[in-house]
## 1
Amino acid sequence: MMQGAVTVLGIETSCDETAAAVVRLENGRAEVLSEHVASQTEEHALYGGVVPEIAARAHVERLDSLVRMAMDDAGVGWSGLSGVAATAGPGLIGGVMAGLSTAKAISLARGLPLIAVNHLEGHALSPRLGDAVPFPYLLLLVSGGHCQFVWVEDVGRYQRLGSTIDDAAGEAFDKTAKLLGLPGQGGPAVEREALSGHASEVDLPRPLLDRPGLDMSFSGLKTAVRRAAEERPLTAQRRADISASFQNAVSDILAKKSARAMELVADRSEHHTFVVAGGVAANSALRARLEAEARRTGFHFFAPPLRWCTDNGAMIALAGAERLRLGLIDGLDTPARARWPLDEASATAAPIYGGGKKGAKA
Ligand code: KG4
Ligand code: ZN
């Protein structure tokens, strides 16, 4: 256990964002000293999805300058760091290797401890970057590659309570955007379109909503969106209506399952805290629904600011700092992992049957 302040450089390269940040952790409070993110949206736009080889190369090209900028802005110097952290999985393996190797090189050259961070742990702890969110809490982790309810007991202690059995919610946003021919990143594009649409205009299913338990499903919703998109000419209004109806269906599913999850954990702790994290948590309509649900159930609600919802280096630096403080460091032989469940015990006992995922934002 490390006493006093811990300052960590964090590197994130699991999908199509290259990011580096320096975070200082003291008495349980995090301070982001610097952060930089470079997105690869343009590189992949032509292909309608993230191309792993292009992503890996782009990470390699940008890592040096991003790390330098993060270090310059933090102003603590290499000697001011307590450790260096990088995402070691899950994600697109080439990208993960690029970031992890960079962290290993820094660790070796500067004599700093290495912390290999699970990307999902980064998201799970991200609400603590801005607010003093106490452990334990209920987490809805909703991103491009993942959609799950997790009981966050403490740093390194996670229990998966339920998850999607097929697509992640962010994936459904991305596919909807593609079906509607919307440019740019899927989630934000659908959210923008939805502003001028009617949410009750297109009848879409809410799979598994009436089933007990916390598992979710989004692939039927995607099929229904495809049908709606093909059924009639895609006018601007039709696009907006489908976007609004889709966003509403996803929000319904996540809100209802969240309410059930809160009921399930209500007697586990007196804190009654519900947090949402991950890229889809950037969606304002969804945040409002979840917040209302939390209020109704008597839970405190936290969601990170938008820049810490989508992939970023600060959450990796924070996870690294929290782990380092507990003495959890890793060897230079730590491998990059394409798959890496946050709760290994539940994942082994009841694997998610969707399968076939190639990593984050598959
Ligand atoms: O956390 P993240 O950056 O990467 C993963 O770890 O997967 O999440 C990216 C996902 C993408 O699917 C993206 O479309 C979605 O988050 N997303 C959104 C919004 N912003 C990003 N989905 C809905 N509404 C948004 N505003
Ligand atoms: Zn992510």
## 2
Amino acid sequence: MVRSAVFLAGLGAASAFVAPGVLPAGSARAPQLRATRMSAIPTVPFDSVTPTGPSGPTLPGDGDLDFLEAKPYWDQSGVTVNIAKQKDPLIGKIVSVQRMVGPNAPGETCNIVVDHGGKLPYWEGQSYGVLPPGIDPKKNKPYGVRLYSIASTRYGDDKTGKTTTLCVRRATYWDPETGKDDPAKKGVCSNYLCDSKPGDEVKLTGPSGKVMLMPEDDPNMTYIMVATGTGIAPFRTFLRRLFGEATPAAKNFKGLAWLFLGVANKDSLLYDEEFQVYLRTNPDKMRLDYALSREGPLNKKGGKMYIQDKVEEYADEVFDALDKGAHMYFCGLKGMMPGIQDMLQGVCKAKGINFDEYLEKLKKNGQWHVEVY
Ligand code: FAD
């Protein structure tokens, strides 16, 4: 009884975060006070944190959600890929595009909701492809597909099962010779998506990928999620599935979801308000650690705090969890992996573990999930 009351309180608040930003993409957001609970940053005492989102009207679909569940819900034998292919994409519609980051974030990241009309169902951890319009001048044929990790659960943020949320960072090109951005070399698809308007049509492919699925057959699972930047997308999905919706998966979950996110500074944090609600309502089932490379605090060697430094702080706990069967996930720019691997190698050496054998074992057991780009 107590548990479900807490759960529903969390749900109401989480629903308030369906729209994480308030201004159209391209405009800077007014600075706002963020209540954070992290070991990396001096914190507001957690008990005094109040969700800041509006407690707006209840959305359709609040309450029990199971109309898109497999039977039993953890059975992944029916996970589909490539329902829509590049040659015959699904025409979706943009529902909303919202800037997610504050004025001091380097670059722009947008939360983009797309209506797929229920025709492109997906599982948490999968990606969509987007076909930007236009001709690739290098190949003299239409631009190819770009993949984007899905940031909503299968129900979509509106819980209709008909929408998908993407978390897209505008790719820009900084010219070292001029010391300025060169708009002629900006990324095609990311800028197309971030500049799109509600009602615009968008060509979608997918869903794709099975590497990042959640092993829900074990409700006591420990998920260790390591993200940089937009790599947060699949983990926002996981956390929403575990703590933000009244699905059988969420109701049965008794394990731990531990997120490490690396971004430049506080203004670059993504979905933080939503995560704070989950932390508040599930303090025994969730952990959250941020590494803010341009803001500090510094790592133990006095250098910038990168994601691998933050994970290293908890190396004993992470290794202990992996030894007990935890699944570890990585998502974000591929440049994050060498630092992670070096750090893990160093920890293994200190513990007298053969790193290659250790990693091989994790991979063989299906505990190691990497999707970097
Ligand atoms: P492109 O047009 O493909 O350009 C790529 C880069 O080249 C850009 O930085 C551009 O500025 C630069 N460039 C262009 N012309 C030149 C030139 N002449 N000289 C030098 N540089 C040049 N991205 C996300 O934002 N969010 C996600 O959730 C996400 N998930 C992904 C999941 C997977 C599995 C994969 C594989 C990728 C994912 N990506 C994600 C990356 C995404 O697919 C695109 O690669 C990204 O958006 C850039 O595409 P673009 O079309 O904007 O850039």
